[in-house]
Amino acid sequence: MTDFAELTSLPGTDRERSWLERRLTFLSEKEKYIVSAIIIGRQPASMAEAINQLLTIGDYEVCFPAGSYRELGEFYLRHEAKLPDNAFPYVDFEQFGWLYEDKHPGLFIGNCFVVYPSAPATQHYANQNDTIPEDNDWSLMVKLASPSVPEGVWLRLPDCSRINGGRPDEVAVVLDTLKVRSLESCVLLNAICSLPEAGNIMAQYSDPVELVNDGDDLGYVLDEQGQGMPNFMEKFFAALEYEGCRSLRFALDISQNLHCYEWVSRNNLKDFGKARLRESGVSPELIDSGYIDLDAYAADLLESEGYTLTNDKSAYIARNDKEFIYERSTPEEAGMTMH
To answer: Which residue range(s) make up the domain with 177?
Structure first.
């Protein structure tokens, strides 16, 4: 497949060109199939239009392997209809492929079928005065190589096969491109984590299987956000900062041990101060009199109890006495000092 470098020659600004160059550099193999389908459907006339198209990548689905109507029919029956394997010998796969395309219009690209979005594309970037949205819906980008493809290709995590019933996703497409059967046969060339606090990934991992598994887990952590835990992301990032985290393994352990941290948003200082005064037996009339600087009282109280103000000054955080469970890291490996 092409590297789509022609998109950076379209009319546009230096800022738009820079954004496109970076985004295109890190396209995963699955994303390349999607971008091919997007451009075939509508050739962009400007960099701004190309940016908008790339910002809709997540709206497309990729059926793999599905390079023909027969394969598309088998993909549908195996991964969506969940037809038992013992019924496969009696099925007309090609007819099911045609039926699938009727319900899910798309385009065959290589050995994939790219399904077009059912709803009109959202306009994410309107004009040159707008801020171009960040590409931040990933946890880890891993560049893998094989004897057949020594220059390597990018894998974008998380791979969603674990949560979509085994439907092949990023990893399956990369293995097919590299002409190998498993990650064990791949060579790790590069890795970039969306969390700066994860440190130097290449210094931490040599096994692509372990790295992909941890990158997947980080993706699920960021997506699920503590299964709805209030202020999960704010508390997680505050804990990473508090511990001076520089390890992906340690970051994953922190995400599972947020109960070990007490966190108070600066927006809630008044409520914190009021609660402490009530605990001390102060009357509601006095607390609500307006003559007590509750923000300052709460801030002083938190600092005296060992809380630390985050670098962005948005919250206070401290360690409680609950046991921190290490499943992936150790204090020595993480290079941190528990507070």
So the answer is: 140-205
